[in-house]
Amino acid sequence: MSIKLEGFVVETVEMHTGGEPVRIVCNLIEHIKGEDILAKRRFMSEQLDEVRRLLMFEPRGHYDMYGAVLVEPSLPGADLAVLFTHNEGYSTMCGHAIIALARFAVDTGQVKAVEPLTRVGIECPCGLVEAYVDVVNGKAGAVHFDSVPAFAFALDLPVQVPGVGEVTVDIGYGGAFYAITDAARLGVTLDGRLRDLVDAASALTAAVNQAIQVRHPEAEDLGFLYGSILTDGRDTAEAGCSRNVCVFADAEVDRSPTGSGVTARMAIRHAKGQVAQGESCEFESLTGARFTAAVRQPATLPGHAAVRVHVGGRAYYSGKASWSLEPGDLIGQGFLLR
User: Fold this and answer.
1) For the residues of 201-241, what is the DSSP string, one character each?
2) Does the pTM exceed 0.85?
3) Of 91, 111, 98, 31, nearest in space to 246 by CA
4) Distance between CA atoms of 142 and 140, rounded to whole angstroms?
5) What percent of the chain shows pLDDT beyond 90?
6) Beta strand 316-323 with 90-91: parallel, antiparallel or unpaired?
7) CATH architecture of the domain formed by 151-313
8) Bridge partners (DSSP) listed for residue 150
9) Domain boundaries defined on the chain
10) Catalytic residues, which ones?
């Protein structure tokens, strides 16, 4: 390990998008090695996972904490690069974090503010994401981003969920893979207990993993099911704003509508002919936060009819922090209670 935690101070900027935390880790850049972003992701997982536990777990974090670790960019057009962390490990894409990071990049001067729209290139494990920040009177506001190539991996797939029976599910990729279905098919409602939604979504994820292996055509590291999204069954723009909840990693609940999940939902809608290119849709999370989305254009991806999805939302600051570990504090290295 290249960092001795005892005596090392980790500096973070705290933000949230729709209530979902974004703990931006600012001073690990020189410590995370790798020729490309996936190599850096593997390096942190293998060599610096103690830092993830320190920042995501209690007593500094909690079961549903989320982080964005800044690393050195390696792609042309990238203004910054990031690794995404959560209670289980490392994601490949995170739309709510992209929205926060783009505003952060403009506000901190890492990218010069240009009115009325400032481009911020963000290198993610899934590829380069281009974000656009609304700037008015020098101040950053709402953020929109164009996704990496998104696609429907499987449509109307029947899976057997224990205690429920056969459930029809769609699997989409929006930088990460999600299983997506109407909550009612699992016998739950988005207005019900959160515990019931988490249990239902977790059971669905397990069932899909038993039924099918997801694969990405360009990188083996991207080929895993990140979680499940339960919806209110509204799947067209005409049906109005659609509510959903995303349960990912180790039963972690996204407070935002889930940017990569919204991307996957739009790719599935487009594949089913439910939304046209350029047609605007709206998605709402359990906190009432809303993201907008539209299929912008076709995208090139071997073996798939992929699209780029334009997603928009807002992020806000919560504060700044300096995190450390005292010698002998074994509990302080990180734990989770659920």
Assistant:
1) HHHHHHHHHHH-----SS-GGG-SEEEEEEE-S--SSTT--
2) yes
3) 91
4) 7
5) 96
6) unpaired
7) Roll (3.10)
8) 307
9) 10-138+317-323, 151-313
10) 94
Tell me the two tokens of residue 117. 């729209």
Tokens 């996204």 locate to 254
Q: In this structure, which amino acid lies at residue 169?
A: V
At 47, the amino acid letter reads Q
For residue 284, is pLDDT > 80?
yes
Structure confidence by residue, pLDDT tens digits, 57-110: 999 999 999 999 999 999 999 999 999 999 999 999 999 999 999 999 999 999
Write the CATH number of the domain with boundaries 10-138+317-323.
3.10.310.10
The 3-state DSSP class for residue 52 equals helix
CB 90 within 8 A of CB 250: no
Backbone angles phi, psi at 289, to 5 degrees: -70, 145
| Token representation of residue 61 | 């974090």
Chain position carrying tokens 């047609």: 279
Gap between the Cα atoms of 230 and 245, Å rounded: 5
123-159 residue pLDDT tens: 999 999 999 999 999 899 999 999 999 999 999 999 9
